[in-house]
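Lecture notes, unit on binding sites. The following record was shown on slide 14. It pairs a sequence with NDP.
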Amino acid sequence: MEETVKVLIIGSGPAGYTAAIYTSRANLAPVLYEGIEPGGQLTTTTDVENFPGHPDGVTGPDLMAQMRRQAERFGADIRTGTITRVDLASRPFHVVVDGTREIKAETLIIATGASAKYLGLPSETKFRGQGVSACATCDGFFYRKKEVAVVGGGDTACEEASYLASLCKRVYMIVRKPHLRASKAMQQRVFNTPNIEVLFEHNTAEVLGDESGVTGALLRRNDGTEVKIDIAGFFLAIGHHPNTELFSDQLALDAEGYIKVEPGTSKTSVEGVFAAGDVRDPHYRQAITAAASGCIAALDCERFLLR
Ligand code: NDP
């Protein structure tokens, strides 16, 4: 017989696990599917020094393992598997796992996150977590007084470059066009920061490094000439994409594909479906903000079921 669950959580980052902790403690017997990247984006970072309660820091994978354990302690049923189809037309919602197994869910908490975009260079993949990062706020601190580069010319790149400039000796911005896409205010901030050097019309040909991690980058100008820069950190800021493909024609999404929620809540355009974490947040994207929104989704879900 087809299984029916009260709360189905999709995604295993800080938002998903926090929703699982709260809903299991509320006796809602949540089932959580981990998806293709168990633990989410944090498993690709090394040390996390800004998650409150860890004064000596914690590694991303350890933090996620702790959250998972905490959810399991209260009975959350955490399963390996990826949701491949959902039908939100009527409740209980119809959900398919790994293309075969079918489940009915009275409520859904979507915490499928967002993925940073990467350039797709093999050398970039090789040094991921060893100098290559897509989060300056998370990893910038490790490059204090060093030289680093930020790829991208949007608001995120400018913001990350400005942040890194306050810590690092020098920040190169690698921009493929002859101008920045960022807002004028952000551009001014970048141009007024003496230790940021914007390299217009440059693309990254290769990230260079050795066993210690990133040591430089080989850049190709649009006229075909090449230049090498010495850097210890290589930060991507070329955008994120929310993992909302499954819901695209069933939930209201914004122009970038993020799930729209009723302001101040986790409620989506479909009753009984809640969204938490980066899948609904293009701005803050921190583990702690994702965890907080997982809590909000759990409380909204609990109240909905009690109605
Ligand atoms: P954007 O899409 O705005 O910018 C991405 C940047 O990366 C562009 O400069 C783009 O270049 C460049 N890029 C994309 N792909 C590549 C590639 N393969 N190689 C090299 N460069 C590449 O993303 P953001 O994350 O900056 O911003 C997302 C949204 O969030 C925007 O609406 C932004 O305004 C907003 N935001 C607002 C902030 C604020 O108000 N404080 C802070 C951060 C973000 P190109 O221009 O050539 O396409």
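Take-home: The helical segments are 14-25, 60-73, 122-126, 136-139, 155-165, 184-191, 287-306.
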